[in-house]
Structure to design on (314 residues):
């Protein structure tokens, strides 16, 4: 099924016409994308390459990294066909460019990319924050080069291409973040691209994305890190599976999460304030006289979580 979806996408022309930020045009590179560039071949980029090799094996996959050893590992694992330490050869001739570096590198990466891309190229990303990257891309990319913000909700606390998995994206949700300036045809191409890898998609604005992800993604990571940091060594020696399950994501890449927290700091600060209010509410229920209310508070959380698990696609 995934292969058939990929084939339908590949057979579609990368026809983009009538961009909001420039004159109408109709550009053909080929009747199908010949080449895709993955900028950053760590866990997410490497997994994307492996997924593409399974779903679209006629497409040439080019990797970019500052480290030759990372590129060599990605080639050895089959995630990319070729790899470059320079940006220009890594994107030359590509129909689709996917930014897979930490979000803190996006601004400089887009500045470097802007003069290198030809009309008809589509650029997307896998970043966990959207307002900054979408704004910079729409400002800096030239007319005829189209950016569509993407956030595939897939990942791991592990890092590096050595942990890449071909099925990392399969069955997961990809959030697309179009704006009034997003080219409609490019948006459909990117939507189809993620679906060709077995993903579900939805569309919200960059602003709503960052506000909601602060609650459901960024705050949980901060909380997991805080729970680990507040323990003394003796306490950690007593921790069991429940604690390890709850704090698993605290083992994630500290540089990647530093950049996410700082880029989305205002929304994260508001999420932290709401968490404080919820903890204050819990504190007020820690009274024998409030036993029934405490049970209701716990049951409400259990019921909401169960309902989430029962949604299609979970």
């Amino acid at each position: 099924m995934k292969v058939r979806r990929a084939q339908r996408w590949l057979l579609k022309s990368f026809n983009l016409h009538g961009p909001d930020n420039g004159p109408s045009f109709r550009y053909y590179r080929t009747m199908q994308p010949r080449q895709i560039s993955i900028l950053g071949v760590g866990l997410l980029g490497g997994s994307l390459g492996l997924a593409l090799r399974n779903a679209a094996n006629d497409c040439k996959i080019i990797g970019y990294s500052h480290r030759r050893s990372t590129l060599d590992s990605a080639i050895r694992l089959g995630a990319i066909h070729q790899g470059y330490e320079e940006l220009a050869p890594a994107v030359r001739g590509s129909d689709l460019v996917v930014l897979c570096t930490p979000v803190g590198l996006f601004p400089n990466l887009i500045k470097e990319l802007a003069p290198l891309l030809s009309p008809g190229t589509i650029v997307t990303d896998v970043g966990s924050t959207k307002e900054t990257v979408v704004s910079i891309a729409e400002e800096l990319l030239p007319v005829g080069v189209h950016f569509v913000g993407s956030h595939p909700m897939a990942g791991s606390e592990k890092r590096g291409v050595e942990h890449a998995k071909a099925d990392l994206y399969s069955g997961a949700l990809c959030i697309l973040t179009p704006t009034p300036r997003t080219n409609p045809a490019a948006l459909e191409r990117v939507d189809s691209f993620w679906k060709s890898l077995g993903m579900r998609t939805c569309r919200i604005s960059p602003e709503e994305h960052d506000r909601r992800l602060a609650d459901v993604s960024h705050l949980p990571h901060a909380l997991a890190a805080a729970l680990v940091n507040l323990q003394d060594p003796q306490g950690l020696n007593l921790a069991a599976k429940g604690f390890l399950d709850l704090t698993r994501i605290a083992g994630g890449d500290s540089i990647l999460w530093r950049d996410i927290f700082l880029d989305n700091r205002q929304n994260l600060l508001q999420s932290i304030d709401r968490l404080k209010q919820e903890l204050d509410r819990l504190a007020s229920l820690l009274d024998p006289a409030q036993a029934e209310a405490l049970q209701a508070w716990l049951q409400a959380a259990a019921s909401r979580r169960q309902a989430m698990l029962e949604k299609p696609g979970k």
